[in-house]
Amino acid sequence: xxxxxxxxxxxxxxxxxxxxxxxxxxxxxxxxxxxxxxxxxxxxxxxxxxxxxxxxxxxxxxxxxxxxxxxxxxxxxxxxxxxxxxxxxxxxxxxxxxxxxxxxxxxxxxxxxxxxxxxxxxxxxxxxxxxxxxxxxxxxxxxxxxxxxxxxxxxxxxxxxxxxxxxxxxxxxxxxxxxxxxxxxxxxxxxxxxxxxxxxxxxxxxxxxxxxxxxxxxxxxxxxxxxxxxxxxxxxxxxxxxxxxxxxxxxxxxxxxxxxxxxxxxxxxxxxxxxxxxxxxxxxxxxxxxxxxxxxxxxxxxxxxxxxxxxxxxxxxxxxxxxxxxxxxxxxxxxxxxxxxxxxxxxxxxxxxxxxxxxxxxxxxxxxxxxxxxxxxxxxxxxxxxxxxxxxxxx
Amino acid sequence: xxxxxxxxxxxxxxxxxxxxxxxxxxxxxxxxxxxxxxxxxxxxxxxxxxxxxxxxxxxxxxxxxxxxxxxxxxxxxxxxxxxxxxxxxxxxxxxxxxxxxxxxxxxxxxxxxxxxxxxxxxxxxxxxxxxxxxxxxxxxxxxxxxxxxxxxxxxxxxxxxxxxxxxxxxxxxxxxxxxxxxxxxxxxxxxxxxxxxxxxxxxxxxxxxxxxxxxxxxxxxxxxxxxxxxxxxxxxxxxxxxxxxxxxxxxxxxxxxxxxxxxxxxxxxxxxxxxxxxxxxxxxxxx
Lengths: 395, 287
What we know:
Order of helices and strands of chain A: HEHEHEHEEHHEHEHEHEHEHHHEEEE
CATH superfamily of the largest domain in chain A: Response regulator
Number of domains of chain A: 2
Number of domains of chain B: 1
Radius of gyration of chain B: 19 Å
Strand order of the largest sheet of chain B: 1-2
Largest sheet of chain A: 9 strands, mixed
Largest sheet of chain B: 2 strands, antiparallel
Distance between the termini of chain A: 45 Å
Oligomer: heterodimer
Helix content of chain A: 40-55%
Strand content of chain A: 15-25%
Helix content of chain B: over 70%
C-alpha cells in the first residue's frame, strides 16, 4: 500500500512539473538561427532498422538541398520512441516543450503515433508521419498541422481486390492478425474485392503476434477458396509464407497480400515466397530513372540498400523542403506553410504524388510479384489512389 | 468440419502442444528444483534459434548445428549459473524476477550487436523437407512430425532421467530438502548447475528445432515466454508431468479455439488458466 501511495505522489509531482512547464512564456522560441527538427523514431527494438532508414532518407533529402531548409540551417533533436505507446505522449511533449522543435518527424508504430497525434493537436506543432498507417491520423483525428507521407493501412489493399478478380479469383479467404492494422487492411480489401464482384468466404484471424498458423491453414484447405488474401508483416510474415508453402497450399491456392507481407523478409522466406502477389506504393525494383538514381545515391551514402521506409523518410524531407522554401524558412507563418505542404507535389522515387484533403498521399499502388527474392513490378494496380479520409473535419 | 479435417486439427493441436511442452519443460525444471523464477527463459529460446541460424551457415548442416548448439547452450547455462544464478537461489522471488528481466534486455541487445535486427530463415534439411499429402490440397510437412518426435523423445528422456537414474534421485532429493541432501554428501551445487544447464539447453534446443519453421527474428523469445508461463502455471509449478499434460491441453484449446470461436481465440487459453486455478489453485499437478 505504501509503495502505491509513493508512486501516486511521485506521479502527481511529475504532473505538476509538466503543467508548470506548459505555463512558461515562450521566450525560448524567439527567432533562433536554425530550424529545429525533432526526430521521434524507433532506434531500438524490433523497428530499429525502420527508424534508421527513415532518418537516413530524411537526411539525404535535406543534404540534396545543401543541408538547409528555406535557407536556414537545421538542428536535429533525436528521441528513441522504443515503439512503446505508453511513452508516446511523454516523448513528443519533451520535443515540443523542452527542445522547442518546429516539426516532429515520426513515427513507425501506430500506437506511438496516436501519442504524437495528441500532442500535435494540443500544441499545434507541425507533425510529419513517415510511416505509421493508423487511419485515425488522417481521418477522424486529422488536423491542419498533421501530414502523412507514407500510406494508410487500407491503401495498399484498396488496390488488391480488383487485381484478384481480374485474375479470375472470385472466392477468397482473408487472414490476418486481429489488431488495428490488420482490421484496417481488411477494410480496404473488403471494399475493393466486393466492389469488383468477389465474395469473401471467411475472415480468419489470430491474436497478434501469435504465429501458430497451422490450424488456420488446415481451415483454408478445407474451405477450398480460389485465393487467399492476407495482411502480415515482419518475422510473422516470413513464418506465414513458409508455413503456407509447407502445408502444400502454395501452387494450389494463390496467395495475395498487402505489400508488407513481402518487405524485408524475402531472404528469410526463400523459395516459399515465389509467386506471391502483393500491392504497395513502392517496390525496390521499380524501373524508373528517378528510382534508380535515388537507390544509387542512397547506397553510396549509407552503404546500405534503401527500402520503402527509406523512401518514405526521403519524401518527408522533400515535403518539408518544399514547405520551408515556400515560407523562406519562416516556420512560424503557419497558414502559408500548411498551404504549401497541402499543395505540394512530391517527385518521389515511388512516382509523383500529391496530398489529399485529409493530408495523406494520393499515390499509385503497384502490383508486384515475388520472383527470386525480389518484388518484381507487374504494373500499376490503381492509379492516384486516395484514402477515403472518412470522418476528417479540419478545424 | 468433416471428420478428416477434425483429425488433422487434432494432429495440429498435438504437435503444437508438444512444442509448448519442450519450451516449458526447462522453465518448470529450473523453478521446481531450484526455486528460481526465470523470465529470461524466452531469451534462451531466441538464443537457440539464432545459434541454429549462425551454426547452420557455418557447418552447412542443421543437424550438426543443433548438436553443436545444444552443447554451446549447456556451457552457456553453466557459465550463467556460476556467474549469476547461484547467488540468487536463496533470495526473494522479486530479486530473481529483476535479475532475469534485466537479462532479457541484455540478451536482446547482444543479439542485435551479434546478428543484427534482420529476419532470417533457416533451411530445413533435405531429408526432412518433404510433405505428406493428407487431402487433395493439404499436405503435412514431415519436419513438423520430426519436431513432435524430438519432443516425445525429450519428454521420455526427462522422465527416465528424473525417475530412474541416480542423478535424478539426487535432483529430486535436492528439491525436497536441500540441506539434508547436502549433509548426506551430495554435491548440491554441482547438481543445481547441471539442472540449470539442462534447462537452458532444453529451451535452446526448442528454439533450434523451431527455427526452420518459425524463422529467426528479434524479440521472438518474449512471444513464447508468456505461453510457457501459462503452461507451467496450469500444470503446477515445478511438475514436469504437469507441464506435459498442460501443454497438450493448451495446444488443444488454442487450435480448436481459433477455428470454432475465432472472436475470443486470444482469450481462451487464459480463460482455461483461470478456470484451472479456480479449481486447483496450485495447478493440475503440484510437485
